[in-house]
């Protein structure tokens, strides 16, 4: 048994449904060899139950559930920070030229190291990752995630039109390469496979059908794609799929919308799409810094919540401006404030929930990670700023744990994340 001692914050009761922040100051978690939390409580009570076991001292700072990033692009880590372009220009000029370089598996291996260390050093322990268009690069990503111990759900990204031609595949090749990768990685340790058409704009109905046939062969694969991000994109999709009632319909028509589907962005949904997403029990990845950087728009969080659509956070690196879900949470808060009466004013507990338990729920891992309850695995980050930094000053002068958490979102960066664990194993 290992006893972790510190101030633990989490949101087992959803703040969007009336729950509030749970905090345990000078608390402790007893974690067994398998990484499962077997006891939580005050430090004295846990210590007296396990008087002889090792104590890891995480006092000072805050211990939070490991972050869950529900939308992030592996091949884009080296192009973070481009300014001034809307989505389709940014793809052409910035993202896709870099993505083409991953045809070289040696290059992809270096990118995989940069990418996985970017996630873990930001405190992210679970991620739904847009992989590469190249099977060798996707294999390199899983290999690196597996070596480090990140919980990684990812897969081959597929497209067969309106993109750089060197990124094209065919429905047959997409199916065969996806099948081989799923056989190699799905449900192997912390890895899971996802079927990933890039977006309907770059996929023919035949390619979407081949994605569905792979999911039929492997019924518990995950699914992710983009939706309703940018108004020009949406108009183009309407023209390409003239029979479709709306953007979501291009996926649902192929049988790709269900409990295991996570759609990134959804900045401009129609009422019917929100109804259909909720009915299908699908999830949306909200990507605030990306939506700001590309000028995609202000995410209608209130209408998602009112319709009962599950929402979690995504960094959307490389359109997003970094791996930190502190930054995404803060930007989500800003954007809801800017929406005025249409916005949903968010508390620090909402932000933590979006960055942790909501992501775990979207990814079907709510019983495993995202909170510090007994029976959950110890996936955590220790926010421990260097002495004298503004965050250190702010935390020491916080008047409550909720206030401390708000300060963490306002000021926290990867530099303040001292350690990260997955199932009790340190990964960063
Ligand atoms: N839509 C299709 N591809 C992408 C991408 O790489 N990033 C974002 N933000 N949107 C997309
Ligand atoms: Zn994306």
Walk me through what this model shows.
The chain is α/β, with parallel strands linked by helices and 428 residues long. It has two domains: 2-65 and 371-427, Urease, subunit C, domain 1 (Roll); 67-338, Metal-dependent hydrolases (TIM Barrel, Alpha-Beta Barrel). 39% of the residues lie in helices and 22% in strands. The chain has 16 helices and 16 strands. Strand 8 (157-158), helix 5 and strand 9 (191-197) form a beta-alpha-beta unit. The longest helix is centred in the N-terminal third of the chain and has 17 residues, at 105-121. It is globular, with a radius of gyration of 21 Å. It starts with a strand and ends with a strand. It binds guanine (GUN) and zinc ion (ZN).
Listed once per kind, the bound small molecules are:
guanine, zinc ion
Approximate helicity band: 25-40%
- What does the main sheet amount to? 9 strands, parallel
Distance from first to last alpha carbon? 21 Å
- The overall average pLDDT, rounded, is 98
Identify low-pLDDT runs: none
Layout of secondary structure:
Blueprint: E1 2-10, E2 22-31, E3 37-42, H1 43-49, E4 54-65, E5 67-73, H2 87-100, H3 105-121, E6 124-130, H4 135-148, E7 151-155, E8 157-158, H5 171-185, E9 191-197, H6 205-217, E10 222-227, H7 231-240, H8 247-252, E11 261-265, H9 271-280, E12 283-286, H10 288-293, H11 301-307, E13 310-313, H12 325-338, H13 348-355, H14 357-362, E14 380-383, H15 390-396, H16 401-411, E15 417-422, E16 425-426
Parallel strand pairs: 1-4, 5-6, 6-7, 7-9, 8-9, 9-10, 10-11, 11-12, 12-13
Antiparallel strand pairs: 1-2, 2-3, 4-14, 14-15, 15-16
Helix pairs in contact: 3-4, 4-5, 5-6, 12-13, 12-16, 13-16, 15-16
Bound molecules: guanine and zinc ion.
